[in-house]
Specification:
Elements (H helix, E strand, L loop, with lengths): L2 H21 L4 E3 L6 E3 L5 H4 L6 H7 L13 E4 L5 E4 L5 H19 L8 H28 L7 H4 L2 H6 L5 H16 L3 H14 L7 H11 L2 H25 L1 H13 L7 H9 L15 H24 L6 H15 L11 H8 L3 H13 L1 H9 L8 H27 L30 H10 L1
Antiparallel strand pairs: 1-2, 3-4
Helix pairs in contact: 1-5, 3-5, 4-5, 4-9, 5-8, 5-16, 8-9, 9-11, 10-11, 10-14, 10-15, 11-12, 13-19, 14-15, 15-16, 15-19, 17-19, 18-19
């Protein structure tokens, strides 16, 4: 059996573990006087069993149970202060269409009498899960192909504890598949295909587009801006092709994702909420009412992320040896999560393929992934509430601090290896950048590194 087949089989096993971890939330029980079957979430099962998945409640909340088309269908939502808000599908277009397609398959399944029957939401969850599992298998495959001679490093992607906990929490595996595919395509010197995949990933979740930033700086240093331009234009074109029809037909529904993110406050997993939980701090904007935009929080998160990008660009231009794409990609995405006001728990999946390619130290990565996965447990019991035998908020936010420190530690190790390339396991035996594509072994044209400038003068 080839290494790739072993990795894919290992991924299937861990995806099965992930499905069983969520299966408790699609159990059925008699509900109501007529004995009709319904989801058994009695006793806050979704938190006690720690099986919560956004897929289940969103089936009704996004009106998918009505067969409604996302972005066209609207509904009124009553806020805590009694005001009403017109709502639409809150996900980027490709993720929304994936949910719609899964709903169509689920309803079709239930309409065929000779097929095994279950609650429509349970069938829907399983249809979604099958697609997400395939997407994660693509992620494993692309990472293994990108790892080159270190193909076994991808075993950490296949057997990550985060897959068990978050593989089916939300729809992020779609984006990781496109992002990993984009990195692989760039490494194979196919910038247009890389751009298309990153653009499609951005239409599912925005983070794959962040990888264009590190590519820009690396291409600037190596004098490969033409190839970067091809990738960037292809990414923009792919994103527009997916988004433009929905934006033209249903502009309010299309804009909902952006509107909701602008008015969203600090997420429970964000560093800003951590500070509030331990200090009682009311945040940059003080008390906000439903629909109010946290203007100062948005400005701070944007400024901090811009500072992260500036720091990564500085490292890219000043390092004695040009950094690898995976190293800078990991730093940018990790910096985005650490400074952003939202770090939904499943977002940690974004880091897994990049971390394996950037820092292939298996024990270190496994330790971080285990810590990150364990944050889920106090999170669920915090939502359960102290009055229902849950845990105080500080127990949850304390584990978030440990998670953030672990990710920051990984960033520090990546930076260390950028400046000390002899410690980089990937660069052993004369390897430059397996994912670099046109950048691999390309001479530097622009650099602020004194070492590189001195070498260029010596060669002249």
């Amino acid at each position: 059996m080839t290494p790739l087949r072993v990795l894919l089989l290992l991924a299937v096993v861990f995806l099965a573990f992930g499905w069983f971890a969520k299966a408790g939330c699609i159990q059925q029980a008699p509900n109501g006087p007529g004995g009709e079957l319904g989801l058994d979430w009695s006793g806050s099962r979704q938190y006690v069993a720690m099986c919560y998945s956004d897929t289940v409640p969103l089936f009704g909340a996004e009106r998918l149970d009505q067969g409604a088309f996302p972005y066209k269908k609207s509904w009124e939502e009553v806020a805590a202060d009694g005001t009403t808000q017109i709502r639409y599908m809150e996900y980027p277009v490709l993720s929304g269409l994936y949910q719609y397609g899964s709903m169509v398959v689920a309803k079709t399944w239930n309409s065929v009498s000779w097929l095994p029957q279950a609650l429509q939401v349970a069938v829907y969850f399983n249809v979604v899960a099958i697609g997400l599992a395939l997407a994660w298998l693509v992620t494993v495959w692309a990472t293994a192909m990108s790892a080159g001679r270190r193909i076994w490093d991808a075993a950490i992607v296949a057997a990550s504890p985060l897959v068990i906990v978050h593989g089916f929490t939300n729809f992020d595996a779609l984006a990781t598949a496109f992002a990993a595919g984009g990195v692989l395509a760039w490494g194979k010197k196919r910038p247009v295909l890389a751009g298309v995949l990153l653009g499609l990933g951005g239409a599912a979740k925005m983070y794959p587009l962040l990888l264009l930033g590190p590519l820009l700086v690396l291409c600037w240093r190596a004098g490969k801006l033409r190839e970067w331009g091809q990738a960037a234009c292809a990414a923009l074109a792919a994103w527009i092709v997916v988004n433009l029809p929905i934006a033209l037909l249903y502009p309010s529904g299309w804009y909902e994702f952006f509107r909701l993110n602008s008015v969203r406050g600090a997420d429970p997993d964000s560093i800003y909420n951590v500070i509030s939980s331990f200090t009682g701090w009311s945040g940059f904007d003080g008390t906000l009412y439903p629909g109010d935009e946290p203007i100062f929080l948005n400005a701070v998160t944007l400024a901090l992320f811009a500072a992260v990008c500036g720091a990564v660009a500085y490292i890219a231009m000043n390092a004695p040896t040009r950094p690898r794409l995976a190293q800078l990609g990991f730093l940018v995405v990790a910096g985005f999560l650490l400074t952003n006001k939202v770090w939904s728990p499943q977002y940690s999946l974004w880091l897994v393929p990049l971390a394996v390619l950037a820092l292939p130290h298996r024990r270190i990565l496994l330790a971080w992934m285990t810590i990150d996965a364990l944050v889920w447990f106090p999170r669920m019991y915090y939502y359960l509430g102290v009055g229902n035998k849950g845990v105080p908020e500080q127990w949850f936010t304390g584990t978030v601090v440990v998670r953030d420190l672990a990710v920051a530690g990984l960033c520090a190790l990546v930076v260390r290896q950028i400046y000390r390339p002899r410690e980089d396991l990937v660069r052993r035996f004369g390897v430059d950048d397996p994912n670099g594509g046109v950048l691999d072994r390309a001479p530097d044209v622009r650099s602020r590194s004194k070492t590189v400038r001195r070498q260029a003068l010596d060669q002249a």
